[in-house]
TrEMBL record:
Locations listed in the record: Mitochondrion inner membrane
The entry's keywords: Membrane, Mitochondrion, Mitochondrion inner membrane, Repeat, Transmembrane, Transmembrane helix, Transport
Highest rank taxon of the organism: Eukaryota
Protein name as annotated: Mitochondrial uncoupling protein 4
Species for this entry: Phalacrocorax carbo (Great cormorant)
Entry membrane topology: Multi-pass membrane protein
Organism ancestry: Eukaryota, Metazoa, Chordata, Craniata, Vertebrata
Function: Facilitates proton transport across the inner mitochondrial membrane and may dissipate excessive proton gradient associated with oxidative and metabolic stress at neuronal synapses. Regulates glutamate-induced proton conductance in astrocytes, shifting the energy metabolism toward aerobic glycolysis and lactate transfer to neurons for ATP synthesis. Can transport chloride ions with lower efficiency. The transport mechanism remains to be elucidated.
Assigned protein family: Belongs to the mitochondrial carrier (TC 2.A.29) family.
Solcar repeats: 20-114, 124-216, 225-316
Subunit text: Homotetramer.
GO terms under cellular component: mitochondrial inner membrane
Keyword Mitochondrion carried by entry: yes
Main location: mitochondrion
InterPro entries, per database record: MCP_dom_sf, MCP_transmembrane, Mito_Metabolite_Transporter
């Protein structure tokens, strides 16, 4: 059998390992995103609630804040906008995770196995896991930033309608084209700096914690590589990711949702640092943790659904465990 014939006879994951892992992680992420999306919408609404910069600019003067806490926010969206609106912005969110999760998972495994390298005992040192997780998250989020921008802005459309403001977008395609026409290519990457910063922190919590906890359990406890180990590791990763990522997520959401001029420059914040300073000065330090409960309540099941699905899909397709 010739080398070409041998290659053709190999299973798909062995012929195109990175493309296969990209596709598998994208499928797992799409499932997790659809299951937990209402919590993401609730979190986004909470994060722009009571925004000090908006009050100073008079954009919401005299308006009462319609939602206060997580449960009242979610219930209010369902009652006032309809249950289907709890999934408003889900399409660009799924697009985002196809790109984001696909790139970050492939990048992390490449960094772990080929660039940074494991130790002689097959363990992956914690500092290398931190570097790999942050780098993979930053790379994945940079490529996915335009879809995240559209997701955040579409999630706020229901609130704009309740406030009597005109809707900005008719759908995902219209949102992309409008942002592109108003701000150019640069406009699609508006807010990419806090977005990448958040992704680096979240993945230091998610990828780093999952990989470290999973292999610690396998090396130091009687647990084997099964759903129990995956569940414990994913629960730990969801909590750490929420703690590390919420402040950057608040900044990212506000920068992405702010009005912009014709050149695509923000009218409320000059940069992520400016947004951070204005938020803390105007609303207090704990405002950086607005939406933490729904963030954590979303990240915990998201992480659980994603990692269990991803590990099982890999096993079914004959790809080695993560």
């Amino acid at each position: 059998m010739s080398p070409a014939e041998e290659e053709k006879s190999l299973p798909l994951p062995e012929r195109w390992p990175r493309a296969s892992k990209f596709a598998l992680s994208a499928c797992a992420a799409a499932v997790a995103e659809l299951v937990t999306f209402p919590l993401d919408l609730t979190k986004t609404r909470l994060q722009v609630q009571g925004e000090a910069a908006v009050r100073r600019n008079g954009a919401a003067a005299g308006q009462a804040v319609p939602y206060r806490g997580m449960l009242r926010t979610a219930a209010g969206i369902g009652q006032e906008e309809g249950l289907r609106k709890l999934w408003q912005g889900a399409t660009p969110a799924v697009y985002r995770h196809i790109v984001y999760s696909g790139v970050r998972m492939v990048a992390y495994e490449h960094l772990r196995d080929s660039v940074l390298g494991r130790s002689e005992d097959e363990s992956f040192p914690f500092w290398k896991a931190v570097v790999g997780g942050m780098s993979a998250g930053a790379i994945g989020q940079f490529f996915a930033s335009p879809t995240d921008l559209v997701k955040v802005q579409m999630q706020m459309e229901g609130k704009r309608k309740l406030e009597g403001k005109p809707l900005r977008f008719r759908g995902v395609h219209h949102a992309f084209m409008k942002i592109l026409s108003e701000g150019g290519i640069r406009g699609l990457w508006a807010g990419w700096v806090p977005n990448v910063q958040r992704a680096a922190l979240v993945n230091m919590g998610d990828l780093t914690t999952y990989d470290t906890v999973k292999h610690f359990l396998l090396l130091n406890t009687p647990l084997v590589d099964n759903c129990v180990t995956h569940s414990i590791a994913s629960c730990c990763s969801g909590l750490v990711a929420a703690v590390l990522g919420t402040p950057a997520d608040v900044v990212k959401t506000r920068i992405m949702n702010q009005p912009r001029d014709k050149q695509g420059r923000g009218l409320l914040y000059k940069s992520s640092v400016d947004c951070l300073i204005q938020t803390v000065q105007g609303e207090g330090f704990m405002s950086l943790y607005k939406g933490f409960i729904p963030t954590w309540m979303r990240m915990a099941p998201w992480s659980l659904v994603f990692w269990l699905t991803y590990e099982q899909i890999r096993r079914i397709c004959g790809v080695s465990s993560f």
